Amino acid sequence: MSSQVVGIEPLYIKAEPASPDSPKGSSETETEPPVALAPGPAPTRHLPGHKEEEDGEGAGPGEQGGGKLVLSSLPKRLCLVCGDVASGYHYGVASCEACKAFFKRTIQGSIEYSCPASNECEITKRRRKACQACRFTKCLRVGMLKEGVRLDRVRGGRQKYKRRPEVDPLPFPGAFPAGPLAVAGGPRKTAPVNALVSHLLVVEPEKLYAMPDPAGPDGHLPAVATLCDLFDREIVVTISWAKSIPGFSSLSLSDQMSVLQSVWMEVLVLGVAQRSLPLQDELAFAEDLVLDEEGARAAGLGELGAALLQLVRRLQALRLEREELCAH
Q: Is the pLDDT of residue 66 over 90?
């Protein structure tokens, strides 16, 4: 596509027809009004016939889409895997939709790749599909977590859960208001109930398992590594939970990350405290990792372990219900 430059500053670009063979009456031959550009590097414009890449990625912010030039002066967060514009914080890492989908497919399908070269292929936006092995390796290297991928969400995966045969959706009369659920003289409508249950399944936190290596040696460093891995996975779960909050995904990426960065420590601490409420002088970091004060000290937590135990004792004295704890 050619461009006509008028003057030096500001620059003007005049869009010309995409194809000389287009009919004269076609809207494609109409000349767009000049677009003023601030001094700086010229934006990239796709050539005619350019095929968009797979994985649902189209023209990102600041790129051309649908024959229009979109300009933005806002800084863009880049994908840590390929350098494209990041669409969000996926599996613990700022990444684009393409790398997010690639990582998810690889984990859910248990796919193994092999590099035809020396396992040192450069992964960029243009070359990210050249070597899947090196792309997946880079996903792991920048911090993407396998535990963030829900294995039960593969296509058709939820069909393996059998429905209960002909069960009344309302366990007892008056459990829900009759208005939105039932019609007088007609069958009950179960769609609102199913939607409510589906939403509760999303927001309900999953049980965490540390899964320490039973063959590994006991000591300070293995315990610290186990706790770090556990907290990484819990942060990924927290991010997924935050995305289920109405309105959160409509925030800009920078606002989403600011919110998460300001509360992640409190979320981890309250998670440990909530799991430890039924226990006595013990901290439940996971279902299979419970430490007393001495064990927490041996794991390298030191004063943090003592402070967590003190917090748990205070919450136990308040006798808070789970709902009250969440409200606070």
A: no
